[in-house]
Amino acid sequence: MEQLLEILRNLHDDVDFETEERLIDDGILDSLDIVTLIAEISDRFDVTITARDIVPENFNSAQAMADLIRRLEEEN
Amino acid sequence: MLFTSYEFIGFLAILLIAYYLVPRRVQAPLLLVASGVFYAFSGWENLLFIAFTVMTVWAGGLLLARSIGRQKDYLSGAGKELAAPEEKSYKETQKKRRKGILAAVLVLNLAVLAAVKYLGFFARGINGILGFTGFALPIPTDWIIPMGISFYTFQSIGYLVDVYRGTVPAERSLWRFALFVTFFPQLVQGPISRFGDLSATLFKPHPFQASTLRRGLERVLWGYFKKLVIADRLAVAVLTVTGSPDTYRGGYIAFLLIVYTVQLYADFTGGIDITIGIAEAMGITVAENFRRPFLAVSLKDYWRRWHISMCSWFRDYVFYPVSTSQAMRSLTKGTRKLLGDRVGRKIPLYLSSFLVWGATGLWHGANWNFVTWGLCNWAVLMISEELEGAYGAFHSRFSFADGKAWKVFCIARTFLLVAAMNLFDCYATLSQTFTAFFSVFIPGSWAGFRVSDLLQLGLSGSDYIVAGAAVVLMFCVSLLGAKKSVRDRLAAKPFALRFALILLLVCAILIFGAYGRGYDAGQFIYNRF
Q1: Active site includes B395?
Q2: A32–B349: do the CB atoms touch at under 8 Å?
Q3: Interchain CB contact of A19 with B (< 8 Å)
Q4: For the whole model, what pTM was predicted?
């Protein structure tokens, strides 16, 4: 989770990712951010995030992203 | 059928009455028949095109569903004991098969779209050349592009990709799927609906509710107001200026920049109001396509507010798949090695955006004007992205940049930027577009221009006053609707006041609507897509 938060803070250092739960719904993360995020996550955690995983439920909060990463790691 | 035609008003009136008189389980089939009739008005042969898309995509969806179902059954039954590597290999094979089905149906439908759009382009080109000799080949260019083909093809593709991704279950019923694709209010100019969203209300029975019908019709009325009083009126002047690119330069183009953007806004949002209003009158929810785009503070913000369904379609079905593809991941590895982490990561990102915006431009029209328009948007967005750091520094240094005046400046700047790029819609060739645009900055092009010359473009002084007043009303109503729906505010008022306002609106449309004039100008700008 700490690694994920570090990645997120590198993207936007002015956002409180520990509490924010509407990152997509409120437009805090845009499509370029999402793609950059996916590339970083894929590198750091050795998972493959594809377009089918890019739904608000998976990216609205840091916790949701952590859950997605865990699910993909288990599938591997 | 144009929305602004007597046939359509008659068709709509009959349909709405029938819709609430028939047994509820007949409502959806009735809509399908109505959509077929509506579409047939644009040409019987066009029905073949839309039927082709309906059949192929529906069948593709069922094939995908069968494959997904079989995989699930196998892995929970006979394949339960498979070791991890074998299970992975089995899944990969099934995925490849599904990819093949998806690709085949996509290629088929995109090929039809491409052929149809390019054919029209070539036919017009041939006629244009022959026109110099006074001859013209009897190629019927009117019917060549089936109405709304860009919209319904993309809507169908979205459905199929959603089935492939497991986001929605495949629709087993052919007639229900056909209704999703052919739902007539959307055929003219979208929005591009998602199956998961639209199907939630499209197939349900809808008992008559006076408030629902009233709200829907109020919105339809508002759409007609924007279309007939503002857009069709301004179109006369716009067509005069753009019709003679050599005559009208300088001051006329400055006028055109503002007026065309206002016309486009009124025309497109008015058409969508009619679309959403008709659906709403029948109890069907169609997603919003605009969110006060004239308040955008940047181009990025603008594209979250304008033609939302198209933007999100390209994002979800082109940008994300392309930018997260294996090819892009490999490219990123390469560029990071070559150019370092920071720059290396951006190259594939900007390349994906380039492809998306090029495709967006091409979707709008099979000519260089639209492609250039798309790429201009891309260039501005990428430059803004790169300058974000500098903007941040600017804002922290200058506190006025947080104030209202700065916001107004950003809104005005964005409006002018969008207006400038909209010029690509106006002329047939790139050189005409650039010549017109740059003439605004050449003092010589303004020589002899007087503001009173704008009265020679087909619109009188009273036309401008009516248009101006209507535009102010349009923006005020839009702003009013930001916090609470205007129709809800209206519903809370006494009946007499509501009745009077609606009656005033109807009268305004009847008296001030630009009828008959420039009938061809009455074509919805986005109708040719």
Answers
A1: no
A2: yes
A3: no
A4: 0.90
